[in-house]
């Protein structure tokens, strides 16, 4: 029987898997429920303004980065330059600037804490050294937790003597390393780290797995990019490549049911169309699996995947604004974090992504579009009254915080709308608006991650809940692992 591949969901993970397999000569059909590609990294338009769905910056585009490797394999590279100044991090005590240059960045941070300068330099030296070792595993990109003899063999083959140095840190948190360096009680420094980690690791410095946090804190130095238009361009490139390679891409096709019939998977969409395939890659939120799989199939899923389905992650409130730049004293920077000092969620910490002047893919001359996102807990939205109150409260909280940094901001706003949890559920199929994947704590990271192997024959999962975790890099890596398992080849 000739093998065929069905990919469900055109988020970054599904598009990565589908475009790689199509380029390698596999017959691929990709179904997407929305009219837009990209999922949480997609876009939408309001009149003359274009808004990226999520507030994020371009990562993994440096030589050897995950996205760069995929685009190189597809023959569709993105020619863009890295940001030398990655972002501003506005905190109550100080404004930190994240510089691409490691030494300049560390010197700038340490200057805020002169009495702790030596300790901060020693801490970052360890972080950068650890990240450099971990990053050597990103070239072979072994899958965790290994689920087959071939994956165990590949992991073993990927190991080098230098990786032994990582073993003492394997079950440590960043909080433990901060204690080791005498920085655990330096509140303002910890808060700055927490602001970086909540956006990338979905948790703060106390609980985040150390090895992953080292990479997360260091990776901006490898290359962070402003992508004209937004990260939806990743999706457009991969979608076009899939079609150019002979694959089939169908939008506005919502999967209703996935069944196992003999050696085939049979999928039914909301229009009653039937699709048969030997191999299926699901790039849907894992919370949807019980809705599309029969109960007897759900019971056969891997335990970690079933536990993940029942787990809970963050939801979000996202604001989409257009501003008249002529009413600002200076244009908004492309990327900025703002923290009020009152925590990591509920509008007390948020990330702003603004179009740069001249990016007419997003806004006409003289205007900027802005996407702002904060973490929020699901229970804050669990009835209609709380839902509307929380939306108003968090919106006002974020606008006030921005106003304290940019006094003319409110006067400059010419358009504003919000994306609360139900909008994310409708737009991206995110049950309860859950986004970002699981917090990368010791009990959810590395060997405790959710594998791309579902536990069912020739059925794979990818996306931000699957190893290695959230963000476009994590989603793409999980798509690579799924494509490798289908093809039996390394591909990238």
TrEMBL record:
Record organism: Planomicrobium stackebrandtii
Gene3D superfamilies documented for this protein: 3.90.660.10, FAD/NAD(P)-binding domain
Signal sequence, start to end: none
PANTHER family: PROLYCOPENE ISOMERASE, CHLOROPLASTIC, PTHR46313
InterPro entries assigned to the protein according to its UniProt record, in alphabetical order: Amino_oxidase, CrtISO-like, FAD/NAD-bd_sf
Domain Amine oxidase: 12-486
Domain of life where this protein originates: Bacteria
Pfam families in alphabetical order: Amino_oxidase
Name under which the protein is recorded: C-3',4' desaturase CrtD
């Amino acid at each position: 029987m000739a093998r065929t591949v069905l990919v469900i969901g055109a988020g970054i993970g599904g598009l990565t898997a589908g475009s790689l397999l199509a380029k390698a000569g596999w017959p691929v059909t990709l179904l997407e429920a929305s009219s837009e590609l990209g999922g949480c990294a997609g876009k939408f338009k309001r009149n003359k303004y274009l808004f990226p769905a999520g507030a994020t910056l371009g990562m993994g585009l440096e030589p050897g980065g995950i996205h760069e490797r995929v685009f190189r394999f597809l023959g569709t590279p993105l020619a863009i330059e890295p940001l030398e100044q990655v972002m501003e991090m506005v905190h109550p005590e100080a404004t930190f600037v994240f510089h691409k240059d490691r030494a300049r960045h560390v010197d700038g941070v340490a200057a805020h804490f002169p009495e702790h300068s030596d300790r901060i330099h020693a801490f970052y030296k360890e972080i950068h050294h650890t990240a450099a070792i971990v990053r050597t595993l990103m070239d072979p990109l072994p899958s965790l937790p290994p689920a087959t003899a071939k994956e165990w063999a590949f992991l073993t083959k990927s190991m080098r003597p230098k990786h032994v140095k990582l073993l003492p840190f394997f079950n440590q948190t960043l909080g433990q390393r901060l204690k080791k360096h005498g920085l655990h009680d330096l509140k303002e420094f910890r808060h700055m780290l927490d602001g970086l980690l909540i956006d990338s690791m979905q948790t703060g410095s106390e609980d985040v797995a150390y090895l992953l946090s080292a990479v997360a804190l260091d990776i901006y130095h490898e290359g962070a990019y402003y992508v004209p238009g937004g990260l939806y361009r990743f999706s457009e490139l991969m979608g076009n490549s899939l079609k150019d390679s002979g694959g089939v891409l169908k939008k506005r096709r919502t999967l209703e049911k996935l069944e196992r019939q003999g050696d085939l998977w049979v999928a039914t969409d909301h229009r009653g169309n039937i699709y048969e395939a030997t191999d299926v890659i699901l790039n849907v939120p894992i919370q949807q699996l019980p809705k599309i799989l029969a109960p007897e199939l759900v019971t056969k899923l891997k335990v970690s995947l079933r536990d993940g389905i029942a787990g809970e992650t963050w939801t979000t409130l996202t604001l989409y604004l257009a501003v008249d730049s002529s009413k600002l004293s200076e244009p908004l920077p492309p990327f900025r974090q703002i923290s009020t000092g009152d925590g990591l969620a509920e509008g007390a910490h948020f990330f702003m992504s603004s179009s740069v002047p001249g990016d007419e893919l997003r806004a006409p001359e003289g205007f900027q579009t802005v996407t702002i996102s904060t973490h929020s807990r699901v229970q804050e939205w669990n009835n209609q009254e709380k839902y509307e109150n929380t939306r108003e409260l968090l919106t006002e909280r974020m606008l006030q915080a921005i106003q304290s940094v940019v006094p003319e901001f409110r006067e400059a706003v010419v358009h504003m709308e919000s994306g609360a949890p139900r909008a994310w559920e409708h737009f991206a199929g995110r049950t309860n608006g859950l986004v970002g994947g699981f917090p990368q704590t010791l009990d959810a990271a590395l060997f405790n991650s959710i594998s791309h192997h579902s536990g069912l024959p020739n059925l794979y999962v990818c996306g931000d809940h699957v190893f290695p975790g959230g963000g476009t890099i994590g989603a793409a890596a999980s798509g690579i692992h799924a494509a490798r398992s289908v093809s039996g080849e390394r591909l990238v």
